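Hi R.,

Here's the chain you asked about this morning:
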Amino acid sequence: MNPARILTLLALLPLGCGLAGHALAGELRGRVVFAGPAPAPVKVPVTIDQYLCGNEKPADDLQLSAAKEIRNAVVWIETPPPGAPLPPRTEKVELDQKGCTFVPRVVVVPVGGTVDFLNSDRLLHNIHATPKRNVSFNRTQPMGRTIPVTFAEPEIVRINCDLHAWMVAWVVVAAHPYYAVTGADGRFAFDKLPPGPYKLQIWHERLGMVPASVTVGDQQPAQVTVEMKPR
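And here is the predicted structure, written out as tokens:
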């Protein structure tokens, strides 16, 4: 072979290897479902501000689809993959009080990140939390006022409105970017993972914590279905 041709091929070799390595990034697709018969929906009485809040509210601590897929389960990779390209972080996290309900019910914020608490209701709310690792707070909040709260340590923090006892929300302070919250279809996804075995943790406010394991390959997306049982 022509020496110049050999040199050209050798010069291109690192580039080819780099592209091949990038192509090895795997995908993980999952679903969180409820095991057993679906419980009947629960309503909680509204005892104050009925003119705006109504007379009752769905408990919303267990939201299931017709196929018993679980909404608002939080899924994360127990040990983040070293050297993997990190998924982008959400620049702004907001938690609103709308119709006497926290919307959304569960948010994820990175360590050191800030949640902007909003109040879209024409009445007074408050936000109250007593976390173990982050700073406690209890702030009254009239309509239109934004209250930013920064969370410095990884933790799952319960948020209450003392004025409206049925109002509950959760702030999940994530230790790394590989966290996801399931939607109404109970599904979650992680992309650009190096192939290999992974351990997952799945948390739900009513059903507790469940571990799961899955192996990610470099061809088809890995699939996992996680069942959560009533406690």
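One quick note: The helical segments are 3-23, 50-53.

Cheers,
M.
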